[in-house]
Design brief:
Layout (H helix, E strand, L loop, with lengths): L3 H24 L3 E5 L15 E7 L4 E2 L3 E3 L5 E2 L4 E5 L5 E3 L11 E6 L11 H12 L7 E2 L4 E7 L4 E5 L4 E6 L7 H5 L8 E5 L13
Antiparallel strand pairs: 1-2, 2-6, 3-4, 4-5, 6-7, 7-13, 8-10, 9-12, 10-11, 12-13
Amino acid sequence: MSTPSDKAHQDRPNRKRQRDVSAFEHAYANFTFTPIESSGRPGTPHRYFQESYRVKQATENQSDGGQETDTAGNRQATPTQIVHKHANGLVIITAGDMLPDASTVQKVEFLQQQGPVANQSAGAKRKQQAKMLRGKDVPGTVQPTDTLARIELANGSPLEMKSCVWGSVLEINTKLASSELIEKDPLLDGYLAVILPSGPFPPRGKGEAE
């Protein structure tokens, strides 16, 4: 015959799973990730990464399908950031097609920094992930909605690049001090950062077909 303490012990894994699911749902509440089909061309991201996704963040002025509407209610195509998932699970954050055609980048300013987790052991990284799932603040971690970098165009217009992923910042692309790199190759050498996701990526139930 089981005792109340036995039942509490048996329920503990279920409570942990429910807590983890709730944390993921909250972190990615307004995000969807649309898979990008491989073109098969040499030099394209699919030659180097396992998967690529367009990142869509729902806004008050956005309708279904990842398109925004103008003041007249007409749908417009929406430029998006693009992220690549490596076979090792790391996610590479890029500006995607957010940069306007023929635009000149004046400056790239990073608002997030590489976290100490980059030099930690696998066990330490698991402990950090557990803290995040419990809702604790962990140095070097970002939420999908956090602004990763701010890009200033030559005409003075600012563009905010989101982190897109809930996790730990392993690397910031310091090469972007040369603004030409992000203009010429935003999807590969001009990437913004590398993030270790806190849990499965893309999160379950947040993907959609193009």
